[in-house]
Structures are given as C-alpha cells and as structure tokens.
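### Sample
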Amino acid sequence: MMIDLGPFSNENFDPKKWINSACQTRHPQDSLDKHMVDLEMKLQMLSEEIAASLEEQSAASLLRVPRSSRDVVRLRDDAISLRSAVSGILQKIKKAEGSSAESIAALAKVDIVKQRMEAAYETLQDAAGLTQLSSTVEDVFATGDLPRAAETLANMRHCLSAVGEVAEFANIRKQLEVLEDRLDTMVKPRLTDALTNRKVNVAQDLRGILIRIGRFKSLESQYTKVHLKPITNLWEDFDSRQRANKSASEKNENERLASGREVHSVAPSISFSSWLPSFYDELLLYLEQEWKWCVLAFPEDYKILVPKLLCETMTAIGSSFISHINLAVGDAVPETKALAKGLSDILSGDMQKGIKIQTKHLEALIELHNTTGTFARNIQHLFSDSDLQVLMDVLKAVYLPYESFKQRYGQMERAILSSETAGVDLRGAVIRGVGAQGIELSETVRRMEESIPQVIVLLEAAVERCISFTGGSEADELINALDDVMLQYISTLQETLKSLRTVCGVDNFGDGPSKREMDKKDGSQNTRRVDLISNEEEWSIVQGALQILTVADSLTSRASVFEASLRATLARLSTSLSLSVFGSSLDQNQVTNGTEDGLGGRAALDVASLRLVDVPEKAKKLFSLLNQSKDPRFHALPLTSQRVAAFADTVNELVYDVLISKVRQRLSEVARLPIWSSMEEQSAFPLPTFSAYPQSYVTSVGEYLLTLPQQLEPLAEGISNTDNSEEAQFFATEWMFKVAEGATALYIEQLRGIQYISDRGAQQLSVDIEYLSNVLSALSMPIPPVLATFQTCLSTSRDQLKDLLKTDSGNQLDMPTANLICKMRRVNLDS
C-alpha cells in the first residue's frame, strides 16, 4: 500500500486520526494486526529513506559552501571595478557636453548670419528684378500676352512684398496698381465673351489671370453681371404680361365704344401667385445649367459663383418682389383688390375705415411663402456641395422679401383674431315680456356655448399659420396675440353674463350686508313679480341658468386642452429650433461628419433657424420661453388662465343667485309676518290656537328644494361627459347642498330678525321649522344647531323655557340663539 506523506507536514497533524483513517482503508479480508504491522514497517522504511536522503544532501551542501563564498568575493570585486569605470565615463561625457553646447551656440550664430546674408542677397535680387520688371512691363503689355503680363505683375507684387516699405519703390507700387487695373480691364471683355459663348478653356485661362493678380472679386462681379440680365428678364416677364393685357383691354374698350358692338375678349390677366411657380421653375433650370457648366469651367469656384449669382439676383429684384407680394395678398380679398391696395397699406393704417386685414390675406401670404419654400428646398439640394455659410446666405436671400411681413406677424395675427372673434355671435340677452325670459335666457346661453369651440378653432388656426409662415420664430408674438384675444373674448362673455343677470331677475342681488336691506325694501315688489311669473317660467329660468354651468365647464376644459396642446407645440419647437439654430452654427466638417451624405444637418436649415441665427437677442428670448414650456406648471396663456377661473367663479355666483332667488323672495317678509305677534282669540270652544300645517312661504321653499335635484341631475350628466353616474350625482349633490345651506342661512337670518313672538306665533313657527327640518333631512342634510335650537325653544312653552336653558347649559342648544329666543318671547332669565 502507498502512503501519502502530505498530512504529516500539516501543523494540525493528529496521529490518532491518521491511524484510524489508515485502518479504514485496509482490505476486509486482512486482519487488523497484520495491517498495523505492515503500516509500521512501511513508515519505518520511509523514515530511514528520508534520513539517508537528508544526510546525503547535507554533505553535498557543505561541499558547495566554500565555492559559493569565493564566487561572492569575486563578484564584489568586479562590481567595484565597474563602478570606477562608469564614473570615469560620466566625467568624460560632462566635459564633452560643455564643449558641444558652446560649439552648437556658435554654429547657431553662424546659421543666423548665413540666413540674413541669404535674405539680403534675395532682397537685392528682388530689388534688381523689380527694377528690371518695372522697365520691361510695358513691353510685355505691348505684346498682348495676357498670361505673361499677369505673371510679370505677380512677380512685381512678390518683389514689392520682399523689399517692404521702401521709399525708392513707392512709384513702382503705384505703377503696379495701375497695371493690375489695366490688365483687369483687358480681361473683362474677353471673360464676358467666354462666359456668354460658353468657352470653357478660354474662361479657365482668364480666370487664372485674374487669380494670379489677386482679382477674384472681378471674376465674381463679371460672372454675376453676365448672367444677371437674363434672370431679371425672366422676372420682368410678369410685368410685361400685365402691361400687354392692360393695353389689349384698353384697345378693346376703345374699339367697342367706337363701333358700338362687342369685340373679342382678351385673355384674363394671370395672378402673381399663379405665375411665381413658373418663374421659380425657370430660374431653377437656369441655375442648374450654370452649376453644371461652372463645374467644368471653374471647378475650384463653382460652389461660390453660382450661389453668389442667386444672392445678387434676389437683391436686384427684392423691392419689386416685395411690392408684388403686397399687391398679390391684397388681391385675395375683393375689398382691397378693388382699391388696388395691399397688405402693407392695411398694416400702415392708410386704408378706408372698415377695411381690415382678413384671414384670406394671411393665407395668400402663406401660399406665396410656401411656393418660395419649395424653391428654397430645391436650391438647398442643388447647392448641397457649397459651404454651410454660403448655403445659409443664399437661403436668407431667397426668403428676404418676406422678412418685413414676418416682423409684423404679431400685429397681423392680433388684428385677424380680434376681427374673427368679434364676428362670433355673442349678443347679450334682452328683457322680454312675461313668459319669454326663459327662451331669451336659453338662446343666449346657447350662443355662448357654441361660441367657445368656434373661438378655439380660430386660435388653433392661428398656431398653424404661425408655424407655416414663420416656422415658430414668432411664437412669442403669437402667444401674446392669443392671450390678448382670449382676454377680449372672455370680457365679452362677462358682459353677456351681466345681461343674463337682468333677464334672470337677479341683477340687484349680490353678496354682502345689503341683502337684508334690499329684501326689506323690495320685498313687496319681489313678491308681486313672483306672482306674475308662472311655475313653468320659473323653472325655465332655473334650467337656463343651470345651462350656464355648461358654458363655464366647456370654456374651462377647452381652454385647458388648447393650452396643453400649445405647450406641447412649444416643446416641439424648442427641440427642432435648438437643433436648427445650433446645428447651423457648426463647422462644415462637423455637419458633414455627423450626418448621412452631409445633408442631414443641412435639413435643419428651415425658415426659423435662418432668421434666428442673425438675431441672437430674439433667439435668446424665444428659447427662454420655449424652455419654460417644458415645465408642467408653465401657463402658455397666463392671463387667460386667470380670466377663465374668474369667469367660472362669476358663473357659479350667477347660478347660485338664480337658484336661491326664489328662496330669497319667499323668505324676504318672514321676519315681519303679523302672525308672530298675534294673540290667542277668545272662543267658547277648545279650538287649537295655531295652524297644524306649515305656512305657504315655507312649503313653497321646501317644495322648491325637493324639486331641485330633478333639475340638477340631467345637467350634471351632461357636464360630466362620462358614463360615471357617481360623478354626476356628486355634482348635483354639491349644488343641492349649496342651495339648501343658503336657504337655511336666509331663513335663520329672517328668524333672528323677529322682534317679538307670542305663544301662538311660537307654536306656528315651530311647525314651520319642523317642516323645513324634515325637508333638509329628506335631502340628507344635517340640521344646523341654530335651527334646531329655534325648533326646541319655540316648541317649549314659555313657562318652561327658562328651566330648559338651565338644564341644557349648552349641551344641545346654541346658547346665543336660545338667549335671543328668550328675548323674543319676553322671558326674563335674570329673575
């Protein structure tokens, strides 16, 4: 058996444990004694082998020790000699370094002297050459060899820059400028001919001459001059057609007057809006042809020359373009077309009274702008190889005719919205005869409710117009216009509410201490007026007043939805405009490397970004607004939000006044009813001293309160706009409680106004209060402690009232009210 010696090297070696483990590995047929003898013998043999090996290795180690000691001594001596050699080498290097630095410094001085001598030599050569060139330049010009003349002038320019500002060469400097102008003048007619007749090689040679003398601007100006005339002819084609049609019309009119018979009609004149796309198509075709030709003739400059031509073209026709836009927009509306006036005339206030800017004006302007936008996208694709700044300059020039109108966009939109909202039918209510108030109220509320979606649609259309025309760059002006127009509209609704108060018969009612005085003063008139109005008319007025709640609900919800939509639009503009403006300011390489085919970043060059890049202050103000729109608490129309809430409060106040008016009228004389102070009548029979039934004033109030839920529930279902009956029930219950609480407060106020009440009056009033309490309980309303105190104290006999107050001591009764009742019943609590 093999013995594993590993466990013997473990610090925690346990002999007993090892022996037990060894015994467990014996063969089952072997006896334990034999196994232990074999194990002992093997351990002894291993121990002897280990001892012999250790002795052998120890002897060998002792023999190697002297040899190792000698090797260590030798290595130490070698290290000492190496250190001495290295130290000597370091000293030699330091000496060589010092001498080398001095040598290098000397060589540097020599090199500087050499460079100066070479520069002086070259300058002397340039001076000598300049003198020679100056004397022979006229001969070169006389040969008519323009490339050689250009080379000579370039050499003269180089020599002059080499000699610097030397007084002796001042005349040569002036001579050079004159000669460059002369050569420029000689090149221009040949360049014009080459450009006109498409002579590629000649144009390239002449371009090289101008570049050699630093006159690239001459190449630009001459190229633009040659091609500007054909393009302006394309533009003037519209005016030519207009004049031709006008002349033909006048001629036909004269022939008709002279002959007295009809003559053939003239073709109708074409409008500018329908002619403009054809002009853009012809212009685009012309530019495409020039682009292709310039790629061959001027491969280094075509990215600049053709865009420059378009910029100069738009500058040349700019004033005429603006004038045509102005008149074309005016032609969109018959009134301004008849006066031959345009949008600028309306905005400046030079028009007749009653002539205002209309939606059709702005829509016509947007249509023209969209036509230009299509042309701009085609140009952006055509000039895609040009530098980003060049492309931006071109697109700005294309949109430039519309800039003056965009700057006044806020004024235009405000005028349009004001006019459109003023056209919404919001006539105030007028007082009609008895029986017609409900109809007038219902019609007025219907007009108010229908006007809300109409106005919201107008506002949404204004947002679309702003995006279409300005790309959102005038969003701040749009918001101001929307806010102002909504304020005007809500003010009109408020005025309409005032007229409804008169129709509802609550124009004199209001909150505050004047209610009681008004009820005392006008109680008889109110009672008579109630008597004149039938129950059907009363309920029609109540129904009409409740419908006003739908107006407030509709205005609140629609204004909230529109504002949320506007906030989302502003948030989208914040993202798109940020990418556009900041992307436009990137370096050309950054844009190309960051987009597919170098065009993705340029797609951001829309109408808004082109405007905002050049007006950082406006951009900063706009982006501040757009960033705020990302906050959920942000109100895009802050003043509108406040006015909508105020309008809802006014509506609630009016509805409450209408619902409580009948109660107020019925209770206005309760404090002064004669029955409270009536005395008992003498009779020979034991008759009851008071009516066992409540009086008519309180029964009418109770019936009204009990009927009111039936009027509220249909309206609540309509306002909730959901199938959730719980919401509708909550709405009806809320108003029911509000009216019932108001009725109870009015009743208690009247009760407190009673100066004296007899026993008979107290018993009758107790019956009245009990009836009203039953009505409140039927409506699931708690009985106010004050009213319960009146009920308890009035139902108690006068003799027992004092004891009742003493035994209660404020546990169930409202003590101030109880004391007041004692005063009414002339009960002295002090005795």
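Residues 216-258+268-401 form one domain. This sample (Conserved oligomeric Golgi complex subunit 7) is used throughout the tutorial notebook.
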